[in-house]
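Could someone model NAP with this protein?
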Amino acid sequence: MSSLESQNETYDMIILGAGPAGLTAAIYACRANLKTLVLESMLSGGEITATDQLDNYPGFPEGISGAEFGERLEKQAKRFGAELNFAAVEKVELEAEIKRVFTAQGEFHGRTVLIATGTAPRTLGVPGEEKLRGRGISFCATCDGPFFREKRVAVIGGGDSAVEEALYLTRFVDKIDLIHRRENLRAIPSLQEKMFSNPKIEFHKNCVVKEFGGEQKVEKIIVENLADSSIKELPADGAFLYVGRIPNVEFIEGIEKDAQGFIITNEEMETALPGVFAAGDIRRKYLRQVLTAAADGAIAAAMSIKYLS
Ligand code: NAP
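Reply:
Sure, complex below.
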């Protein structure tokens, strides 16, 4: 027994992140009798819990709320014996055979580690954004939408998230200004069709936010039209930012990442470090979806089982 094992119990698999990738991996690992610990800094379910309705996961013909999906995943992983610990990971040492994970609640040891920490919302870095965060600036329509009943809000971004969440917000608000930096939206055509036929949403194409204005809360948004360099001021009670995601990798060193910081793995979810895997949105990949995250998690667990045997 190594000195580490004599001080601490050693898990077969430590999973960083309790989103769809991490919890699916936990289900597969536990069913193969791996002693499995899942570390999570926030809520089980990951980003999907901030989504009102998950409509494209197979097997749920009526859709399912993101929060309920997260709860069900946690329940399923626990049913097979996964240990879940709500502790933020601060540092990892992954080179040795026994890997060390340091959290605010102490140190954990594992024979394999799966990094499934997902992504966080990207910010714009414009004046007023930091000051008014939580004072009208939000990254979660599901959480904050009901506070903006009969108000006017802006949604920034042109991807699936921006358009989907703008459509969700129309339940509450009177008017939405959707601000996108290009002529064409990135969102899938079916979402675009719904958006363009919704009278509450006004599309501001080729526009970027220069500043969020307001003292105690958001009051206005200064926008530049890139096509003609004109500046306009939009009255606003709030702003929802959906300008993409950045990977949660600050604490991970010594693993190959792409230029945006996403972890590079092979198709088996292996990183270049033996016994270290990555799965879900944190990976460099083409399609970031709950379904593909879950599939990554299953593969990572299978490879972990193979590695340990
Ligand atoms: P995304 O697809 O990366 O879109 C981000 C949007 O923000 C893009 O329109 C981008 O503009 C814009 N943007 C990026 N940086 C900006 C900046 N500095 N200033 C202004 N605008 C900026 O991100 P997402 O919409 O969050 O989606 C992430 C992933 O989740 C995607 O794979 C998406 O398909 C998936 N998703 C799927 C669903 C669904 O299936 N129902 C729902 C939500 C998300 P450009 O277009 O000019 O690059």
